[in-house]
Amino acid sequence: MKSGKKIPRTQPPEQKPEVRRHNFQEVSLGYTPAMAQLEASRCIQCKKPKCMIGCPVRVHIPEFIDLVAQGKFLEAAEKIKESNSLPGITGRVCPQEDQCEKHCVVGIKGEPLAIGKLERFVADFERLHKSGDSLIQTQPTGKRIAIIGAGPAGLTAAGDLAKMGHEVVIFEALHQPGGVLFYGIPQFRLPKDVVEAEIDYLRKLGVEIKVNYVIGQIKSLDELMKEEGFHAVFIGTGAGLPHFLDIPGENLNGVYSANEFLTRVNLMHAWEFPRFDTPIHPHKVIAVVGGGNTALDAARTALRLPTTEKVIVLYRRSREEMPARQEEIQHAEEEGIDFQFLTAPFEFRGKNGWLSQIACYRMALGKPDASDRRRPERIPDSEFEVKADAVIIALGSGVNPLIAKSAEDLQTDSKGHIELADEDINVTSKPGVFAGGDIVTGAATVISAMGAGKKAAQGIHEYVMKGNH
Amino acid sequence: MYTILEKENLAPRVFRYIIQAPDIAKKARPGQFVIIRLDETGERFPITISDMDSNSGTLTVYVQAIGKSSLEMSELHDGDSILDVVGPLGNASEIAKFGTVVLVGGGFGIAAIHPIARALTEAGNHTLSILGARTAELVLLEDAMRKVSSEVCIVTNDGSSGSEGLVTDVLLQKIKEGIPIDRVIAIGPLVMMKSVADLTRSYNIKTTVSLNPIMIDGTGMCGACRVTVGNQMKFACVDGPEFDGHEVDFESLFNRLNSYVSEEYEARQRYIQDTQDKEPCRLEASSQTVSSS
Ligand SMILES: Cc1cc2nc3c(=O)[nH]c(=O)nc-3n(C[C@H](O)[C@H](O)[C@H](O)COP(=O)(O)OP(=O)(O)OC[C@H]3O[C@@H](n4cnc5c(N)ncnc54)[C@H](O)[C@@H]3O)c2cc1C
Ligand code: SF4
Ligand code: FES
User: Fold this and answer.
1) Atom 8, ligand 2: which residue's CA is nearest?
2) E strand segments, chain B
3) Which end of chain A offers a freer environment for a tag, N or C, measured as fewer CB atoms within 10 Å?
4) What is the pLDDT of residues B138-190, one digit of tens each?
5) Among B216, B227, B229, B260, residue to substitute to test ligand 3 (most atoms within 8 Å of Cβ)
6) pTM of the prediction?
7) Which atom of ligand 2 is nearest to the CA of A61?
């Protein structure tokens, strides 16, 4: 495998921009087995693999890549799953350029190994070729665990706990498990059958998923533990309450939060209206405010709706500061999305109750701020208007208050995030209650939520097995 | 799956459903609502909980068949089931001993006022319920409201039951009679709630209204239900649905509620068309009632 250094990084085929901007199918088509083996052959099998340092859950990267190089794809999948139970998802959505691939030594002189693409290939291969899951038979422990929220944090915790022999019930507020993986990240980046397959696997492990259960409203934490007989609870309820700009005109029709827009399209299938009942108004020019993954997902989703003629992203800093993944920015540019950098809206203006113009300032970058990015400052007298009949606000979100409101003894920080009493096992101030994912950290990543779910599962296991809970 | 145990047609286009939902019934309080999705292709829509019985594990809801989803729901019968019922959502009404409370229920809003009136009467208040509707047959729950209120006044636009006029006429009359009113709770069409709030503002009587903006998740995630109250953005599903009527920006709510009117219309027409093709005679009647809305 050592000779491979000179082979360039293998690019998987993609749908052409002019084709994909009209459909919701996945942009990247993934490796063929031969491509995967070729890419894997570029790995120099470091003794002290740096890439693993970059991975929040420490996937055994060189080992799985070696198995791919040998064509042992199913074994490679097993290897990844020792530390990451959802590789089909992380292979697609992890910001690898900031994590594993950033540390890859092959990347010092050339391009780093395509670790994410390989991970995705292996997971897809396993999903399509494995006949029946090898379900580990564990001795039931007789302990019952409640998981609140079926996002990546909750799903990971549930899977790990079920494998340890506990009886696991997930309570999910929506009618569909998956969290952001389902309602937020669009099909063309993460096909929903990939997510469904993971959820099915949990069901096979014996996990029960109760949808339509908003904990805090239908049952409190105490009721779950005292009346329903759960020995421990994990809270993975994610982010909530979308932020708005707090500028005039936000109540005009045509102004959406990214969550609303994406939920209408992804979860409620508004793009298939009228076959599905949830509508989205037929907009022509859609602006998106923000520069993260959510903003780009909203922009690229908007572009794919049948009546859309133009999508404009308004971002107050410049391209370099955009927090979205490189790959997403590049895909969006290829698809013809218009980026207006150094632009900040200050008023939404409307006609007959509908948005028609967005009044903006031009910005300049000043000194770095607390986030270490240069602070955007308003250029005097630089007002101008952007014509748009819809605007999607993608500026992140605050915290969902429902659970904390129903449990006074659960400690939260000033913003409402649940506080951990011990970060090694993700336990909260309330005995028997663990938490992880965006509800603890604020909006973060899929893999960090999964990492938190994993740690909490271990913490819960020790907690329920040691005491007479 | 949530089974419909009983469905009754109370007035043209108005139906009452008793739905099996034991966990929700156990927790639901007056003022709260559920979100319903009828089937896989359905939309999520909020409905106020009008009654709950934890012993039988049932919820009572009233549905007015005006949009596609509610029309479709009006086609369901005893024993049929609903795919998703989520709740109880929103905050419960504040129940305390205020003294004299006037409950104003407009048309369909009477169904929502009923459990609140009962709880307030039980809490020792003198409850005066003003029930208003366009015409006599739309005055819902009259008997039930008499049972749970200290006093009931009926008012219809055409005078076919009770006095002729608007709920605000009766309210104004009561205020002028000098009855000390400690609180007003108004639930009904937006215009009605706005006029009640406008009236009580000038007499400085605290007034609660229950808002019904467009909702999707009902858990505070999407922001579709945002309303402006006291110049601040609030999410009706987690901060409401009840708010101080004197602080609510009704104008922007009117506007937002109208945002999907044309899509609603399209869906409804299509639904009527599709079902009519199958069963021409039975739906003739309902399509007529629909067009009068
Ligand atoms: C549009 C978008 C794109 C993103 N793109 C990426 C990306 O490319 N890469 C990446 O790594 N990260 C991305 N993220 C961030 C990532 O999705 C989140 O960090 C991650 O999903 C957090 O996982 P979680 O399990 O904590 O919460 P969530 O995924 O938010 O799941 C929480 C679940 O809990 C449920 N819930 C909430 N309240 C209750 C309650 N009271 N009772 C019961 N259930 C409840 C919710 O309905 C939801 O299903 C993106 C986020 C968004 C919004
Ligand atoms: S989980 Fe994410 S960071 Fe870890 S190896 Fe896989 S792609 Fe890289
Ligand atoms: S309905 Fe989505 S936040 Fe209220």
Assistant:
1) A100
2) 2-11, 14-20, 33-37, 45-48, 51-53, 58-64, 81-82, 84-89, 100-106, 126-133, 151-156, 163-164, 183-187, 207-210, 226-229, 232-235, 242-244
3) C
4) 888 899 999 999 999 999 999 888 889 999 999 999 999 988 999 999 999 99
5) B216
6) 0.91
7) 5
